[in-house]
């Protein structure tokens, strides 16, 4: 492929022969042909430069301006890069309207000298194209050879920047954040575009998948590295005043292929290693590891340094209209996204549990409370990853329980919290993320518990224990008042009559109960929870 400018030089034209489209001489052509029939352009192929006497443009021995303009439009639509016309044979001059229209359409028109034969242009141009293609093939073959030696020679992948830089004679940079690759060639430097960083880890638009190599501002070219429609990284090539040649694109694509192979290898290693971590996490949350020595040995095998106390968190994508395999794929992809986020923080343990939900064990030392943990999860994690996944993400957070034995209990609480978050969302109105913390749950923690009766008894102790402590310390009657108030279906007057006190006394005591437990006995939902707590307390003490 050559340009119209090269055709002018090789075909023996001079600069004065350019009649129109002087700013479009970089149009590329594949071949040169001629036609002299009114409908000859119907058999042209895209990329063929046209030679003509101008005879098809005559109408009753006069130049037809309208017909010429129509022909130019049809040639542009075909992909013709330009034409050369023998002025003086049939047409003395082209109308100004035609030349203006050709310039507007970026369609070069040349004046073909009368003393030249078609072959005087066609033969040297075709030979020049063939020579240029031969050079392109030789260069391309040499590039394949260099990359073959690079691949078989065992050179570190980080030296790929210098190889590509040497071939292109331009600075090169490779950046893949997930694998912590940030390599620059030794061949000079170029301005860094921080806007590229915003795309890493994001879903690639269709145009980027179809054309991963693009020219950016200041002549910098970027080859996007994409896997599973997610932007993994970039190859950045320094400034070019022109478009890339075919052999240069081959070198860039070869580099992208080698990087893709290395990323696949790294992912395979990472996934194998992650399976061992998943098994270890499952043993932790199920309480299968009993001895301290075994725990430390297994933690060392997977490269984790354990903390003394953890809070469990479970995350999953929306289950609505999803098969088990689809959920596994989405959660596995979610885990990969989390890997780049948590790999720099060795204190957080992460993986998939037995049901392929994303499991996080967060050291209690990171945050002061589970409330701040919920806020941290929403602000730091889910807002970022829901953009990548383009779908809702749900999370459940357990409470802190001391020692490593508390991990089992915290995990079970996280599971109940996650189930609550999942069931509280409808397919039609699912938020981008939804977090439920166990300490905020009421009825749900009992409904979804493995042993509802035991959970109800624990809930009763948490709620009523504060009331009983107040009664002992203040010689109060809060627990009795609560029981009577509930028996009276929340009627202050009836409760006061049964306890032989003023109605305002009942109101005061109910307000104290609200302050101590956080539950409003006048509210239907909270009243039901208090009824469960009272029932579990009474029955639990009698059994």
TrEMBL record:
PucR C-terminal helix-turn-helix domain residues: 478-535
Domain CdaR GGDEF-like: 291-419
Residues in Purine catabolism PurC-like domain copies: 7-129
InterPro entries in UniProt: CdaR-like_regulators (IPR051448), CdaR_GGDEF (IPR041522), PucR_C-HTH_dom (IPR025736), PucR_C-HTH_sf (IPR042070), PucR_dom (IPR012914)
Family in the record: Belongs to the CdaR family.
The name this protein goes by in its record: Purine catabolism regulatory protein
Native source organism of the sequence: Brevibacillus formosus
